[in-house]
């Protein structure tokens, strides 16, 4: 059985993934943004290996999450599930970043750097990544007029690219991006057309399966099938430029070599 950490696991796809993995006998560490949100899932957290608390919009709290996980012990897999969708405004995190960018891109980048390296990494992206711009001049939305949908699309482009970069730089880790589809969660809305169950089963399978089909790296997945991501995602030049930009913004370097 595997030990798995899932970010954003108090509701939606993260909670569904946690329930599935725990029902299969795996040890799951949950994550809640606050103690209040943690209190809402006592029915499942009582059976979990643990629950860590921290707001991914804050780099300091993200660091605390990493420290809490490392104190529990090394994970076999990490599912970077947490994300936010259409924010009305840019917002302003404690470090001055756009909130969508901070939660959807910077937090998983930092957790990848700070948490003891697992065997498998799964990053949740979106089909909307195809609408993201490959221009990194204003990655943090300090100059452009705010566009909630464009900011979300770009954050999901970046996270899919990060998954591909990790696969390239860390050959000992299985790193994949998963598009869960437009599913009827609180984020997706009740009218979302995709199957809710299919929305989380790909990431639980990639996190734990011993099947040869699941033991791949650098893939972009949708409902158990590999698909072609936007060409930007597999562009090694863009991967290197993005990772370097994230390192500059966070003062945390993910890869030892300069990329």
Can you walk through the features of this model?
By secondary structure, this protein is α/β, with parallel strands linked by helices. It contains eight helices and eight strands. Strands 3-2-1-4-5-6-7-8 form an eight-stranded mixed β-sheet, with helices on both faces. The chain is globular.
Write a concise keyword list for the protein shown above:
single chain, 259 residues, alpha/beta, 8 helices, globular
- How would you characterize the largest beta sheet? 8 strands, mixed
Our measurement of the CA-to-CA distance between the termini, rounded to an integer number of angstroms, reads 35 Å
Q: SS-based structural class?
A: alpha/beta
Mean of residue pLDDT values: 93
Brief rundown of the structure:
The protein has eight helices and eight strands.
Helices and strands in order:
Blueprint: E1 3-6, H1 12-23, E2 27-32, H2 35-39, H3 42-45, E3 50-53, H4 59-72, E4 77-80, H5 99-114, E5 120-124, H6 148-169, E6 174-178, H7 196-208, E7 220-222, E8 225-226, H8 236-250
Parallel strand pairs: 1-2, 1-4, 2-3, 4-5, 5-6, 6-7
Antiparallel strand pairs: 7-8
């Amino acid at each position: 059985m595997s030990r798995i950490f899932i970010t954003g696991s108090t509701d939606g796809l993260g909670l569904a993934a946690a329930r599935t993995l725990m029902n299969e006998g795996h040890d799951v560490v949950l994550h809640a943004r606050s103690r209040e949100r943690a209190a809402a899932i006592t029915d499942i957290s009582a059976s979990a290996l643990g629950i860590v608390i921290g707001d991914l919009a804050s780099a300091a709290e993200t660091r605390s999450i990493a420290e809490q996980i490392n104190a529990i012990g090394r994970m076999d897999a990490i599912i970077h599930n947490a994300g936010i969708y259409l924010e009305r405004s840019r917002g302003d995190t404690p470090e001055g970043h756009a909130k969508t960018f901070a939660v959807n891109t910077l937090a998983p980048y930092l957790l990848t750097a700070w948490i003891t390296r697992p065997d498998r990494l799964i990053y949740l992206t979106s089909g909307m990544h195809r609408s993201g711009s490959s221009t990194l001049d204003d990655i943090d939305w300090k100059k452009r007029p705010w566009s909630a949908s464009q900011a979300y699309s770009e954050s999901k482009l970046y996270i899919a690219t990060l998954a591909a970069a990790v696969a390239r730089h860390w050959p000992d880790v299985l790193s994949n991006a998963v598009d869960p589809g437009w599913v009827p969660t609180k984020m997706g809305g009740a009218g979302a057309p995709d199957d809710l169950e299919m929305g989380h089963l790909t990431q639980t399978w990639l996190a734990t399966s011993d099947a040869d089909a699941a033991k791949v790296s650098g893939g972009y997945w949708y409902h158990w099938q590999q698909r072609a991501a936007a060409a930007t995602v597999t562009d090694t030049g863009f991967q290197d430029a993005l990772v370097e930009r994230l390192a500059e913004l966070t003062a945390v370097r993910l890869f030892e070599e300069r990329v």
